[in-house]
Protein 1
Amino acid sequence: MRWYAFLLYPFALIYDLVTRLRNWFFDIGWLKSASSPIKSIVIGNLSVGGTGKTPMVEFLIRMLHKEQKLATLSRGYGRKTRGFLKASPEVSPEEIGDEPFQIYQKFGQNISVFVGEDRLNALNEIATQPNAPELILLDDAYQHRYVNGDLKILLSTFQKPFFSDFLLPMGRLRESRSGAKRADLIIITKCPNQLNDSEKIRFRNEAAHYCKLNTPVLFSSISYGEPIPLGISLLFSPKVILLTGLANDQPLVDYVHEKFELLKVLRYPDHHDYAEVDFDKLAHAFRQLASQNPVVLTTEKDAVKVKSNAPEGFLAEIPIFVLPIEVRFSQDDEQTLALQIQQKVLKKDKI
């Protein structure tokens, strides 16, 4: 916690009161939750950003798209449009948001990708479309209680688990820790690759204070792939200028520092919309380090904006590579996740 956090305590109390009242109104029915017209899985968190929602959505897509006619729905954070939209070859990140655009680029041949602030209206619209999906992944919808998903997955990072965090503005929680009671499944994300059993037991015991009895707590880690050229095809150099626009880039910085020779880090806020001044700064850093023959390395999410916004010819002049990531589970935890989806979602009509 930041050293001055105690000064923010009164504001956190006010925030807590507002969010508790809102949740209470839903609990007693003054605010209405409706069931999704399509089988649905909610993926979300209690904190603001950085818990790995998009990699988890991608994991679920890989797990489910061969067996189910699948779609994703998010609000499209950071987009410059409003209302309900379906991704197509003509859309840009500015129209649907960088994360939905990333998902569409990777999986658009196999699934449908939608955005809409009003999730319930969007779901009703999707359900009436020809060739409607059988299952929909609701990205970042844990606080969107107007829709009651069939399975609610709560994500929380190993580095900053919800049970040791505090409400805004003292910490990063969007609602109190007790919000975990709505979760059917908790996944601790970004875990070390060699997480021992005693640490898993500790996390499960801590989470149990806030969630429903016998709520499964699973553990996932991040696996990085080989860098892929964004522009012209060049050989990758291990001397790296890292470009990030993430809520928390420290795990990525640590990985790059361990795996490659990290020359410089250019940090931007989460969902940063790269502009001409940013490309000038990147080009300046590249020229300063040109004698070392560096490459620029960035994330899949940032690559969407970089490719879309880069000045003409920029990608041919500066060697930029993308570092792909995937979520990994132990075999037991992956089986538990699959069983929860099977029992709570896919068999819903048979109960």
Protein 2
Amino acid sequence: MSYAVKEMFLTLQGEGVNAGRRAVFVRFAGCNLWSGREQDRATAICRFCDTDFVGTDGEGGGKFADAGSLAVAAADFWGPDRAERFCVLTGGEPMLQIDDALVDALHAEGFAVAMESNGTLPAHPGVDWVCISPKAGSEVVQRAGDELKLVWPQAGSDVEAMERWDFAHLLVQPLDTGDPAGNAASEAAAIALVMDRPRWRLTLQAHKRLGLR
């Protein structure tokens, strides 16, 4: 199988339980909840995505002919030291492309493999850290994992039902609206949710605040 990667880069994980951890991000092209084209946003299931996942023209991106070449490219971004190697497979929707060969190849390069997914496809069982970010209006089939990250506010989200899913960590992340007033309102709503439902914890997009990718 070949793989279409929008971009690949070394950074710090900016959100969630692993925030602050050095990581190689592998952003796959394509998603099943939005085409990535602005003209389709209004009719998409996920309308608030702030990520460019169209094409393979980003830094480190491209079409990789096999899993081994993609894993080696990720290792090159990390550098020669194999200690604490950590990669995050994201998108778009990474489960459109993650398969046995890729997970095995990344493990062979010494990576712990994390995935950030919308949960509409089953997570690969070999992934070491499963983060699911459910989108209202979609059918979430992956209802277990390490981390549930709910972007908030999201009209139509059943928070009470999510609390019955089997996740080790329940996180709420303020919706990035693109303007300061809207972001302040999102942050207030997320704080209010945690204050009302203490099983949840607040997570912020620290990479944006620090100027990281």
Protein 3
Amino acid sequence: MWITTERVFYAGLLGDAAERTMGGHGVYVSPTGAPLSIRIGGGAWQSGELLVVPPQVPHQVKTEHRLVLNLLIEADSVDPSRLPHFMQHCGPVDAPAFVRCVREAYARLLDASGSGSFEGFEFDSLFFDEPLAPRAIDARIRAVVDRINADPAAQTSAEECAAAVKLSFSRFLHLFKQETGVTFRAFRAWKRARSLLRYVRQSASLTDIALDTGYPDSTHFSHSIRQVYGLRPSDILAGSRRLALIQ
């Protein structure tokens, strides 16, 4: 798994996940050509080698092969109107050149993992051949977004953020959703859940990880993680024990 502040690439077991709701642009690629299946918001199952899911869309993915290649692009980092055409859809998409590119990128990362050196790899160039267009966000909201990205576990309230950027509380909430596409509360919840990925290779207890990632207790932690990933935190950690982690 390759994690940056704005991107994630995961190659591994899909797991028997229930419905999940991610905060970024999700891309699922079959590593072998065997079709993946997706159900959007409880609808009918659809199949394809490439699945695309916009942010905050509930969905369930499964595959008989068990393995999946998964990219996650943070919504606050890219202009949705300037994403590659195939990423402006929801569900199975026909984009064979991109599927081939992802598989080749995975092979290159596997080769690099043998030497332990990942110097020279740039995420967007590796998977998309060029940098994705950044999202233009009001400077005041960008300051808050950067603050949350820097420390997702911080117990910073919307009131504190509004005061920090000199906006009224109601104006801040309206502007935040307008600029990022989601509410402040949903954004903060997603970033906190996403931060779990940085702990998947640590030996700390679930309680310690819950506290380190900003959750008040392990019960709240487990409930929130299952809503986002469709899996229990313990299952995510167990399935990641043999994962090579790039940060």
Protein 4
Amino acid sequence: MILHIVFGQSSATNLKAAFELDPNLAGDVLCFEDDLAVGPLFILDTPDGRRARKEWWAVMQAAGPAMAGTQAALAVDAAPGTDAEPVYEDIDPVRALKGRLREEEELTVWIWAGQNAADVCGYYWLVSQLDRFSGRIHLIYLNNLPFLNEKNAVFYPTHLHQILPKEFLKAKKLAREVSLAEFELDGDEWRRLMNENAGVRLLEGGKKIRGEAASFYDKDLLHAATPEFQKANKVIAQVTGKFKYPVMDQYLNWRLKELVREEKLEGRGELKTMKDYEVKLPGSPAPEADAAEQATS
């Protein structure tokens, strides 16, 4: 039996549709949602590391709920009326996977990865923990490979959700066993990424990941801002439309709010979702201010 692993729910939809076209491809699908291309990774293989990432997600989402499936620790509130600190229950999202592999000796794992930083980082994270199951772990990496779109034109997808269900039948031929050398080398690469603990991780080609500061996209957000107030979601849409590899709107929304707090941009409205506030470059009067001055002159 095959257990398919993808990163992000959008990647699972077309893969599941392909099962109807080829029963030999069918199997369970396990989806990990956390985008490891952004945010802290330091000691993520420990309870403290998972807790730190959970707390970062809470800050980034303005203390909202963490992303489903994130490699994080879940906070359990202290009992009402007590001064006790909240207790954190550590959730290791790979523990159940390893347990299933021990119990089902015939189970093989296919890790699907598109040519993007989130999938590649997810692969590194997983493979660093599955070395004891060598011989049963396979990788399908769509690295600069041509596929056909709805119009039968050739294109080079960066994400699995861009591939038609029928094209997964061609992609399955790429499945190959993760070698012992890869378990060692790619496990070392994951430990490098954890120790580097960059704010943003970018794919440079192949499986090479480059780390950058959390503020890496700030210059693009500032460039998209104007002297007049614009909705935050409009600014973010202008930025994401120029990227070859998509960046999470949530992440850019967090960076935009940080720019307002740092007074590099002026904000108007409540700094929550992208639709709740507006931003503009500092030092230039807003249109309302101009109208008020003209009325009093």
